[in-house]
């Protein structure tokens, strides 16, 4: 069976009731045992190595980082240890050297697949929260600055006549493995974009639009991108994808037409592949999507059904 999905299951209690209490949050931030997970310009603080590790700060180093951080958000509690993410994107690299020590600010996309899954999930959560904070410094209604509240899980507009609360956002996207039964057995539809690594083919995907059910988005995206009609759209799994701010909602769908006529603006190619072909994918000069993606999980799950 395919393994679990990356970037899910942080193992943290998000402490949604406690984080509403400012006094509790302030006390936890001063606690020398509290762990701070630093983020800088969408990169997490990581100790490189064969199995890269999340670098968390505590004690005096944590306090030092909090003084230069522009935003902080509670991630959650594990046993007695409280975890926060903090963002210092406004700092220049030299200002970070005294806190980062042997660790480096690294893009999680580069190391996520080889990290311990729970650590990768916590870093993904930290990165997603800090991305939201940095991109919601101003109110979308009146343009006034917003303020971090409730342990970093709300930003409230400071405009006197506005005071609108803004909540962390994640953009839903559908991602789907389309299959059909042909003469050579079952086949699945994979496609590639010109910008992807050479030979890589993946499932189709696209953002959900306002006024649309997830299943409708699947049917529309497959038709727009590949010209293939689908039915029997079935939910399979979902994955937070913090690159930068999506929730990938994974589906299977059955093709009701075979001919591919792909959208040349979005795709470089789209093809049907049988299980045998995917079994020999690299020999044929192709490669599957990255191992930490739900795209790969959808393909692996389908292969395991044989
Ligand atoms: Zn406002």
How would you explain this protein's 3D organization?
It is a single chain. This protein is an alpha+beta fold and 306 residues long. The chain folds into 3 domains: 18-135, Nucleoside Triphosphate Pyrophosphohydrolase, CATH 3.90.79; 136-168; 171-304, Nucleoside Triphosphate Pyrophosphohydrolase (Alpha-Beta Complex). It contains 8 helices and 15 strands. Strands 1, 2, 3, 4, 5 and 6 form a 6-stranded mixed beta sheet that branches. The relative contact order is 0.14.
Secondary structure: elements and pairs:
Layout: H1 22-30, E1 35-40, E2 43-47, E3 53-54, H2 59-68, E4 71-78, E5 81-87, H3 93-100, E6 104-106, H4 108-111, H5 117-134, E7 146-149, E8 154-157, E9 165-166, E10 171-182, E11 185-192, E12 204-207, H6 214-226, E13 230-241, E14 246-255, E15 269-274, H7 275-279, H8 294-304
Parallel strand pairs: 1-5, 10-14
Antiparallel strand pairs: 1-2, 2-3, 2-6, 4-5, 7-8, 8-9, 10-11, 10-12, 11-15, 13-14
The chain binds zinc ion.
Structural class by SSE content: alpha+beta
- Which ligands, by name, code or SMILES, are bound? zinc ion
Distance between the termini: 11 Å
Summed up, the helix count is: 8
Give the amount of beta strand, in percent. 25-35%
Radius of gyration: 22 Å
- What profile does the largest beta sheet have? 6 strands, mixed
The strand count comes to 15
User: Rough shape?
Assistant: globular
Helix content: 25-40%
The residue ranges in which pLDDT falls below 50 over 5 or more consecutive positions are: none
Output the helix-strand order.
HEEEHEEHEHHEEEEEEHEEEHH
- Give the CATH level 1 class of the largest domain: Alpha Beta
- CATH superfamily of the largest domain, called what? Nucleoside Triphosphate Pyrophosphohydrolase
User: What is the CATH topology of the largest domain?
Assistant: Nucleoside Triphosphate Pyrophosphohydrolase
CATH architecture of the largest domain: Alpha-Beta Complex
The number of domains is 3
User: What's the mean pLDDT score?
Assistant: 96
